[in-house]
Amino acid sequence: MRRFLAAIIVLCMAGLAAPAAAEDTFHGEWQQVSSNAGECQTCRVTIRQTGSTLQIIANNDWTAIAETGDSKTAGGAGFWKRGTRKTYAGKSFDIKLRRNDGGELLMLMRIEPARGQSRTIKGVFQRIEQLKI
User: Fold this and answer.
1) Are 121 and 109 in contact, with CB atoms under 8 Å apart?
2) Least crowded by CB within 10 Å, which of 1, 13, 66, 95?
3) Between β-strands 44-50 and 119-129, what pairing exists: parallel, antiparallel or unpaired?
4) What does pTM read for this prediction?
């Protein structure tokens, strides 16, 4: 019985330690450094990571929820806020995130318009602030 309890304690401790290290991967505030949708020196995203779930909030009217695939990738879906004058107002999209070896965050956002072809926005972000978990 003691071995069983010791094993449970070790597994619980390992489970608590692993997410904290993994949460460091995406958690924080990120500044856009390049994009195929045009330059935007004020575009930022805030990512709050809880376990494998990412809540992504952009300061230019979009938000998304994603799940991590491994320690460096995540995928999910989001939408652009309705009622704005933005090109994609009210549109939903698929999103993929990946951390590269240089510490940058690479984002692919695939938007399905009501008519016409889909568009993929590619952005590169650098972390500007590590948020407290």
Assistant:
1) yes
2) 1
3) unpaired
4) 0.78
What string of H, E and C letters represents the secondary structure of the chain? CHHHHHHHHHHHHHHHHHHHHHHCCCCEEEEEEEECCCCCCCCEEEEEEECCEEEEEECCCEEEEEEECCCCEEEEEEEECCCCCCCCCCCEEEEEEEECCCCCEEEEEEECCCCCCCEEEEEEEEEEECCCC
pLDDT digits (tens, 9 = 90+) for 44-82: 999 999 999 999 999 999 999 999 998 899 999 999 999
Q: Which two tokens stand for residue 133?
A: 């978990």
Q: Tell me the C-alpha distance between 133 and 20, whole Å.
A: 8
Please write the tens of the pLDDT for every residue from 98-129: 999 999 999 999 998 777 788 999 999 999 97
